[in-house]
Amino acid sequence: MEDSLMLGVEGVKKTILHGGTSDRPRFITGTKVTFHFRTRLCDDDRTVIDDSKKVGVPMEVVIGNMFKLDVWETLLMSMRIGEVAEFWCDVIHTGLYPMVAKSLRRIAEGKDPVDWHIHTCGMANMFAYHTLGYDDLDELQKEPQPLYFVLELLKVEQPSEYAREPWALSDEERLKAVPLLHGQGNKLFKMGRYQDAINKYKEAIICVKNVQTKEKAWDAPWLKLEKMAHTLTLNYCQCLLRMDEYYEVIEHTTDIINQHPGVMKAYFLRAKAHMEVWNEAEARQDFQKVLDLDPGMRKAVKKELQVLNMRMEEKREEDRQKYKGMF
Protein backbone atom coordinates (compact mmCIF):
# COMPACT_ATOMS: atom_id res chain seq x y z
CA MET A 1 0.00 0.00 0.00
CA GLU A 2 1.37 3.37 -1.06
CA ASP A 3 0.61 6.39 1.12
CA SER A 4 2.40 9.54 0.11
CA LEU A 5 2.15 13.07 -1.18
CA MET A 6 1.96 12.96 -4.98
CA LEU A 7 5.19 14.15 -6.50
CA GLY A 8 4.91 17.67 -7.89
CA VAL A 9 1.25 18.11 -6.92
CA GLU A 10 0.51 20.42 -4.00
CA GLY A 11 -2.26 19.45 -1.61
CA VAL A 12 -2.82 15.85 -2.77
CA LYS A 13 -2.09 12.64 -0.88
CA LYS A 14 -2.53 9.23 -2.53
CA THR A 15 -3.21 5.84 -0.96
CA ILE A 16 -3.38 2.79 -3.25
CA LEU A 17 -6.17 0.47 -2.09
CA HIS A 18 -5.89 -2.09 -4.89
CA GLY A 19 -3.02 -2.32 -7.37
CA GLY A 20 -3.68 -2.09 -11.08
CA THR A 21 -2.44 -4.20 -13.97
CA SER A 22 0.48 -3.73 -16.40
CA ASP A 23 2.20 -0.42 -16.96
CA ARG A 24 0.67 2.99 -16.49
CA PRO A 25 -1.36 3.87 -19.63
CA ARG A 26 -0.37 6.61 -22.04
CA PHE A 27 -2.34 9.77 -21.34
CA ILE A 28 -2.29 12.38 -24.11
CA THR A 29 -4.65 15.20 -25.04
CA GLY A 30 -7.87 13.59 -26.25
CA THR A 31 -7.48 10.37 -24.27
CA LYS A 32 -10.87 9.25 -22.87
CA VAL A 33 -10.78 7.87 -19.33
CA THR A 34 -13.63 5.84 -17.80
CA PHE A 35 -13.73 5.44 -14.02
CA HIS A 36 -15.88 5.07 -10.94
CA PHE A 37 -15.64 7.59 -8.11
CA ARG A 38 -16.72 7.94 -4.51
CA THR A 39 -16.52 11.26 -2.67
CA ARG A 40 -16.13 11.39 1.11
CA LEU A 41 -16.04 14.21 3.62
CA CYS A 42 -13.02 14.54 5.91
CA ASP A 43 -15.09 13.95 9.03
CA ASP A 44 -14.73 11.17 11.59
CA ASP A 45 -17.15 8.94 9.69
CA ARG A 46 -15.67 9.64 6.25
CA THR A 47 -19.25 10.41 5.17
CA VAL A 48 -19.97 9.42 1.55
CA ILE A 49 -21.70 12.23 -0.36
CA ASP A 50 -21.51 10.83 -3.93
CA ASP A 51 -20.90 7.34 -5.34
CA SER A 52 -21.07 6.52 -9.05
CA LYS A 53 -21.38 2.79 -8.34
CA LYS A 54 -24.66 3.36 -6.53
CA VAL A 55 -25.88 5.23 -9.59
CA GLY A 56 -24.59 2.42 -11.79
CA VAL A 57 -22.97 4.67 -14.40
CA PRO A 58 -19.20 5.31 -14.52
CA MET A 59 -17.74 8.75 -15.15
CA GLU A 60 -15.92 9.74 -18.35
CA VAL A 61 -13.46 12.60 -18.92
CA VAL A 62 -11.28 13.51 -21.87
CA ILE A 63 -7.73 14.52 -20.99
CA GLY A 64 -6.90 18.10 -21.96
CA ASN A 65 -10.51 19.26 -22.34
CA MET A 66 -10.37 21.26 -19.10
CA PHE A 67 -12.98 19.31 -17.16
CA LYS A 68 -14.45 21.55 -14.44
CA LEU A 69 -12.67 19.62 -11.68
CA ASP A 70 -9.25 19.50 -13.32
CA VAL A 71 -7.58 17.77 -10.38
CA TRP A 72 -9.37 14.56 -11.41
CA GLU A 73 -7.29 14.48 -14.60
CA THR A 74 -4.12 14.70 -12.50
CA LEU A 75 -5.28 11.93 -10.17
CA LEU A 76 -6.31 9.59 -12.97
CA MET A 77 -3.02 10.05 -14.82
CA SER A 78 -1.22 8.60 -11.78
CA MET A 79 -3.17 5.32 -12.01
CA ARG A 80 -3.09 1.96 -13.79
CA ILE A 81 -6.02 0.05 -15.30
CA GLY A 82 -7.93 -1.72 -12.50
CA GLU A 83 -6.29 0.33 -9.78
CA VAL A 84 -8.36 1.65 -6.89
CA ALA A 85 -6.85 4.58 -5.00
CA GLU A 86 -7.92 7.08 -2.39
CA PHE A 87 -6.82 10.69 -2.83
CA TRP A 88 -6.99 13.31 -0.11
CA CYS A 89 -7.31 16.69 -1.84
CA ASP A 90 -6.93 20.04 -0.09
CA VAL A 91 -9.37 22.92 -0.63
CA ILE A 92 -7.25 24.39 -3.44
CA HIS A 93 -8.55 21.50 -5.57
CA THR A 94 -12.11 21.01 -4.30
CA GLY A 95 -13.77 24.43 -4.63
CA LEU A 96 -15.67 23.53 -7.81
CA TYR A 97 -16.77 20.10 -6.66
CA PRO A 98 -20.29 21.20 -5.55
CA MET A 99 -21.17 22.33 -9.08
CA VAL A 100 -19.76 19.19 -10.67
CA ALA A 101 -21.68 17.08 -8.15
CA LYS A 102 -24.91 18.95 -8.91
CA SER A 103 -24.71 18.00 -12.59
CA LEU A 104 -23.91 14.37 -11.79
CA ARG A 105 -26.78 14.13 -9.31
CA ARG A 106 -29.27 15.55 -11.80
CA ILE A 107 -28.28 12.81 -14.23
CA ALA A 108 -28.62 10.17 -11.52
CA GLU A 109 -32.12 11.45 -10.69
CA GLY A 110 -33.16 11.19 -14.33
CA LYS A 111 -33.28 14.95 -14.79
CA ASP A 112 -31.91 16.88 -17.72
CA PRO A 113 -28.12 16.38 -17.72
CA VAL A 114 -27.66 19.60 -19.65
CA ASP A 115 -27.30 21.96 -16.76
CA TRP A 116 -26.94 25.11 -18.79
CA HIS A 117 -26.77 27.56 -15.93
CA ILE A 118 -23.52 26.28 -14.40
CA HIS A 119 -20.47 28.51 -14.62
CA THR A 120 -17.22 27.54 -13.01
CA CYS A 121 -15.93 31.01 -12.28
CA GLY A 122 -16.28 32.08 -8.67
CA MET A 123 -17.55 35.53 -9.62
CA ALA A 124 -20.35 33.97 -11.67
CA ASN A 125 -21.32 31.86 -8.70
CA MET A 126 -21.72 34.94 -6.51
CA PHE A 127 -24.06 36.57 -8.99
CA ALA A 128 -25.94 33.56 -10.32
CA TYR A 129 -26.53 31.27 -7.37
CA HIS A 130 -28.74 31.23 -4.34
CA THR A 131 -28.80 27.46 -3.98
CA LEU A 132 -27.59 24.40 -5.86
CA GLY A 133 -30.66 22.47 -4.79
CA TYR A 134 -28.83 20.19 -2.36
CA ASP A 135 -28.15 21.22 1.23
CA ASP A 136 -24.82 19.41 1.54
CA LEU A 137 -23.52 20.94 -1.71
CA ASP A 138 -24.69 24.41 -0.64
CA GLU A 139 -22.69 23.94 2.56
CA LEU A 140 -19.60 22.86 0.63
CA GLN A 141 -19.92 25.81 -1.72
CA LYS A 142 -20.20 28.28 1.18
CA GLU A 143 -17.33 26.71 3.12
CA PRO A 144 -15.00 24.68 0.84
CA GLN A 145 -13.16 21.88 2.63
CA PRO A 146 -10.75 19.05 1.82
CA LEU A 147 -12.32 15.92 0.34
CA TYR A 148 -11.41 12.29 -0.22
CA PHE A 149 -11.88 10.91 -3.73
CA VAL A 150 -11.79 7.12 -4.18
CA LEU A 151 -11.20 6.42 -7.88
CA GLU A 152 -11.29 3.12 -9.77
CA LEU A 153 -9.73 3.32 -13.24
CA LEU A 154 -11.77 1.14 -15.63
CA LYS A 155 -10.69 1.99 -19.16
CA VAL A 156 -8.32 4.26 -21.08
CA GLU A 157 -9.00 4.93 -24.80
CA GLN A 158 -6.71 6.84 -27.14
CA PRO A 159 -8.27 9.53 -29.40
CA SER A 160 -8.38 7.18 -32.42
CA GLU A 161 -10.10 4.41 -30.47
CA TYR A 162 -13.52 5.96 -29.82
CA ALA A 163 -16.18 8.05 -31.55
CA ARG A 164 -16.00 11.57 -30.23
CA GLU A 165 -19.19 13.06 -28.82
CA PRO A 166 -19.78 16.85 -28.64
CA TRP A 167 -18.44 17.05 -25.08
CA ALA A 168 -15.15 15.49 -26.23
CA LEU A 169 -14.43 18.05 -28.98
CA SER A 170 -11.85 20.80 -28.77
CA ASP A 171 -13.09 24.34 -28.12
CA GLU A 172 -12.53 25.31 -31.75
CA GLU A 173 -14.47 22.27 -32.94
CA ARG A 174 -17.29 23.02 -30.50
CA LEU A 175 -17.72 26.60 -31.70
CA LYS A 176 -17.78 25.44 -35.32
CA ALA A 177 -20.42 22.86 -34.45
CA VAL A 178 -22.79 25.32 -32.74
CA PRO A 179 -24.24 27.11 -35.83
CA LEU A 180 -24.60 23.77 -37.63
CA LEU A 181 -26.51 22.22 -34.73
CA HIS A 182 -28.57 25.40 -34.33
CA GLY A 183 -29.54 25.32 -38.00
CA GLN A 184 -30.43 21.64 -37.84
CA GLY A 185 -32.59 22.29 -34.77
CA ASN A 186 -34.44 25.12 -36.52
CA LYS A 187 -35.11 22.94 -39.55
CA LEU A 188 -36.45 20.11 -37.39
CA PHE A 189 -38.65 22.59 -35.48
CA LYS A 190 -40.25 23.80 -38.73
CA MET A 191 -40.90 20.16 -39.65
CA GLY A 192 -42.72 19.63 -36.35
CA ARG A 193 -40.07 17.19 -35.08
CA TYR A 194 -39.79 18.89 -31.71
CA GLN A 195 -37.96 16.17 -29.76
CA ASP A 196 -35.34 15.86 -32.50
CA ALA A 197 -34.96 19.65 -32.51
CA ILE A 198 -34.53 19.62 -28.73
CA ASN A 199 -31.69 17.11 -29.04
CA LYS A 200 -29.87 19.37 -31.50
CA TYR A 201 -30.32 22.45 -29.32
CA LYS A 202 -29.03 20.50 -26.32
CA GLU A 203 -25.90 19.43 -28.18
CA ALA A 204 -25.25 23.03 -29.20
CA ILE A 205 -25.76 24.28 -25.63
CA ILE A 206 -23.32 21.69 -24.30
CA CYS A 207 -20.72 22.95 -26.77
CA VAL A 208 -21.26 26.59 -25.80
CA LYS A 209 -21.21 25.95 -22.06
CA ASN A 210 -18.06 23.85 -22.23
CA VAL A 211 -16.24 26.70 -23.97
CA GLN A 212 -17.74 29.31 -21.64
CA THR A 213 -16.30 27.66 -18.54
CA LYS A 214 -12.82 28.71 -19.69
CA GLU A 215 -13.75 32.40 -19.89
CA LYS A 216 -13.84 34.93 -17.07
CA ALA A 217 -17.42 35.57 -16.03
CA TRP A 218 -19.04 38.77 -17.29
CA ASP A 219 -16.10 39.65 -19.58
CA ALA A 220 -16.95 40.25 -23.24
CA PRO A 221 -16.14 36.71 -24.53
CA TRP A 222 -18.17 35.15 -21.68
CA LEU A 223 -21.15 37.43 -22.37
CA LYS A 224 -21.04 36.64 -26.09
CA LEU A 225 -21.23 32.91 -25.31
CA GLU A 226 -23.97 33.59 -22.75
CA LYS A 227 -26.05 35.28 -25.44
CA MET A 228 -25.53 32.28 -27.74
CA ALA A 229 -26.63 29.92 -24.97
CA HIS A 230 -29.74 32.01 -24.26
CA THR A 231 -30.79 31.96 -27.91
CA LEU A 232 -30.47 28.18 -28.01
CA THR A 233 -32.25 27.75 -24.67
CA LEU A 234 -35.17 29.89 -25.81
CA ASN A 235 -35.43 27.86 -29.03
CA TYR A 236 -35.44 24.79 -26.82
CA CYS A 237 -38.27 26.36 -24.80
CA GLN A 238 -40.29 26.93 -27.97
CA CYS A 239 -40.12 23.18 -28.58
CA LEU A 240 -41.22 22.52 -25.01
CA LEU A 241 -44.25 24.79 -25.49
CA ARG A 242 -45.31 22.72 -28.51
CA MET A 243 -44.86 19.58 -26.38
CA ASP A 244 -47.01 20.99 -23.52
CA GLU A 245 -44.05 21.05 -21.09
CA TYR A 246 -45.14 24.37 -19.63
CA TYR A 247 -43.57 24.16 -16.18
CA GLU A 248 -40.16 23.35 -17.66
CA VAL A 249 -40.49 26.42 -19.90
CA ILE A 250 -41.22 28.53 -16.82
CA GLU A 251 -38.18 27.08 -15.06
CA HIS A 252 -35.70 27.74 -17.90
CA THR A 253 -36.99 31.19 -18.80
CA THR A 254 -37.00 32.23 -15.13
CA ASP A 255 -33.35 31.20 -14.84
CA ILE A 256 -32.51 33.44 -17.79
CA ILE A 257 -34.56 36.35 -16.46
CA ASN A 258 -33.01 36.12 -13.00
CA GLN A 259 -29.53 36.48 -14.46
CA HIS A 260 -30.31 38.78 -17.41
CA PRO A 261 -33.61 40.64 -16.86
CA GLY A 262 -33.51 42.39 -20.24
CA VAL A 263 -34.15 39.34 -22.45
CA MET A 264 -37.57 40.13 -23.93
CA LYS A 265 -38.15 36.73 -25.56
CA ALA A 266 -37.74 34.99 -22.20
CA TYR A 267 -40.64 37.03 -20.77
CA PHE A 268 -42.76 36.33 -23.87
CA LEU A 269 -42.27 32.56 -23.72
CA ARG A 270 -42.77 32.51 -19.95
CA ALA A 271 -46.00 34.49 -20.34
CA LYS A 272 -47.30 31.94 -22.87
CA ALA A 273 -46.41 29.09 -20.51
CA HIS A 274 -48.11 30.84 -17.58
CA MET A 275 -51.18 31.32 -19.74
CA GLU A 276 -51.36 27.59 -20.46
CA VAL A 277 -51.35 26.67 -16.76
CA TRP A 278 -53.92 29.32 -15.79
CA ASN A 279 -51.47 31.67 -14.07
CA GLU A 280 -53.36 34.74 -15.23
CA ALA A 281 -51.65 37.39 -13.09
CA GLU A 282 -48.16 36.10 -13.92
CA ALA A 283 -48.97 35.95 -17.63
CA ARG A 284 -50.28 39.53 -17.71
CA GLN A 285 -47.25 40.76 -15.77
CA ASP A 286 -44.85 39.11 -18.21
CA PHE A 287 -46.71 40.38 -21.27
CA GLN A 288 -46.50 43.92 -19.83
CA LYS A 289 -42.75 43.44 -19.35
CA VAL A 290 -42.49 42.43 -23.02
CA LEU A 291 -44.09 45.73 -24.01
CA ASP A 292 -41.84 47.67 -21.65
CA LEU A 293 -38.77 46.13 -23.29
CA ASP A 294 -40.04 46.22 -26.89
CA PRO A 295 -43.09 48.37 -27.76
CA GLY A 296 -42.90 46.87 -31.26
CA MET A 297 -44.35 43.68 -29.80
CA ARG A 298 -47.69 45.41 -29.11
CA LYS A 299 -49.59 43.61 -31.89
CA ALA A 300 -48.30 40.15 -30.86
CA VAL A 301 -49.01 40.82 -27.18
CA LYS A 302 -52.52 42.10 -27.94
CA LYS A 303 -53.26 38.87 -29.79
CA GLU A 304 -51.97 36.76 -26.88
CA LEU A 305 -53.97 38.77 -24.35
CA GLN A 306 -57.15 38.18 -26.38
CA VAL A 307 -56.45 34.45 -26.19
CA LEU A 308 -55.75 34.75 -22.45
CA ASN A 309 -59.03 36.60 -21.86
CA MET A 310 -60.96 33.97 -23.78
CA ARG A 311 -59.26 31.06 -21.98
CA MET A 312 -59.80 32.59 -18.53
CA GLU A 313 -63.49 33.22 -19.29
CA GLU A 314 -63.83 29.60 -20.43
CA LYS A 315 -62.18 28.43 -17.21
CA ARG A 316 -64.42 30.62 -15.05
CA GLU A 317 -67.50 29.25 -16.79
CA GLU A 318 -66.20 25.71 -16.38
CA ASP A 319 -65.63 26.34 -12.66
CA ARG A 320 -69.14 27.81 -12.31
CA GLN A 321 -70.65 24.71 -13.86
CA LYS A 322 -68.48 22.40 -11.77
CA TYR A 323 -69.47 23.96 -8.46
CA LYS A 324 -73.08 24.80 -9.43
CA GLY A 325 -75.47 23.53 -6.82
CA MET A 326 -72.72 22.38 -4.45
CA PHE A 327 -73.77 24.92 -1.81
UniProtKB/TrEMBL annotation:
One of its GO terms (cellular component) is nucleus. TPR repeats lie at residues 264-297. SUPFAM superfamilies: FKBP-like, TPR-like. Keywords: Cytoplasm, Nucleus, Repeat, TPR repeat. It is found in: Cytoplasm; Nucleus. Residues 29-155 form the AIP/AIPL N-terminal FKBP-type PPIase domain. Pfam families: PPIase_AIP. InterPro entries: AIP/AIPL1/TTC9, PPIase_AIP, PPIase_dom_sf, TPR-like_helical_dom_sf, TPR_rpt. One of its GO terms (molecular function) is peptidyl-prolyl cis-trans isomerase activity. The keyword Nucleus applies. The keyword Transmembrane helix does not apply. May be important in protein trafficking and/or protein folding and stabilization. This is Aryl-hydrocarbon-interacting protein-like 1. It comes from Megalops atlanticus.
